[in-house]
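Bumping my old thread because nobody answered last time. Still need a sequence for this structure:
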């Protein structure tokens, strides 16, 4: 029997609005929500706080922990909304190995808008100086990912417009 849980991974570079959209979707759908940043080991947080970009060897254990969390939620019959940069297709492939259906919602936008949003954030360990390295690392969703139901979303739209579009496109059951 296939697991009926769905995991919506709200992805994109820093400043794209992942947390805001994930919160809106979680509230509308009544699904648990998690921030991938909460899964980072202290060493990763220290690197990013110092303006040092993470390397793949820093990311793989973090991504495995996120995948294990999603699988655990699915095994208990719970669908989830998760924020995660998921910048590379290989990272998304690892996350897609979680139990249940995993869909990626790529928040995409102009670098100037992203930089402006990052500059306005307070209390986040990711400095705006790391945006260029994130943009250089970002691999857009593949056609196979899009064909499987993942979506590319334009951050010029409001979070409410994006949440409405996601719910409609994926035909998700709204509870609130």
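Sorry it took so long. Here it is:
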């Amino acid at each position: 029997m296939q697991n009926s849980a769905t995991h919506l991974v709200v992805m994109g570079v820093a400043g794209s609005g992942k947390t805001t959209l994930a919160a809106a979707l979680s509230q509308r759908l009544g699904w648990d929500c998690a921030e991938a940043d909460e899964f980072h080991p202290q060493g990763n947080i220290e690197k990013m706080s110092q303006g040092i970009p993470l390397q793949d060897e820093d990311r793989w254990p973090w991504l495995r922990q996120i995948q294990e969390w999603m699988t655990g939620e699915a095994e208990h019959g719970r669908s989830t909304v998760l924020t995660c940069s998921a910048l590379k297709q290989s990272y998304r492939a690892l996350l897609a190995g979680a139990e249940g259906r995993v869909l990626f919602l790529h928040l995409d936008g102009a670098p100037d808008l992203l930089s402006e949003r990052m500059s306005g954030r307070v209390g986040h360990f990711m400095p705006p100086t790391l945006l260029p390295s994130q943009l250089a690392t970002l691999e857009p969703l593949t056609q196979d990912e899009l064909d499987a139901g993942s979506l590319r979303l334009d951050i010029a739209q409001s979070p409410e417009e994006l949440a409405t579009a996601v719910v409609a496109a994926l035909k998700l059951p709204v509870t609130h």
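The helical segments are 18-29, 42-49, 56-75, 89-96, 111-119, 131-137, 143-147, 159-170. Let me know if any region looks off to you.
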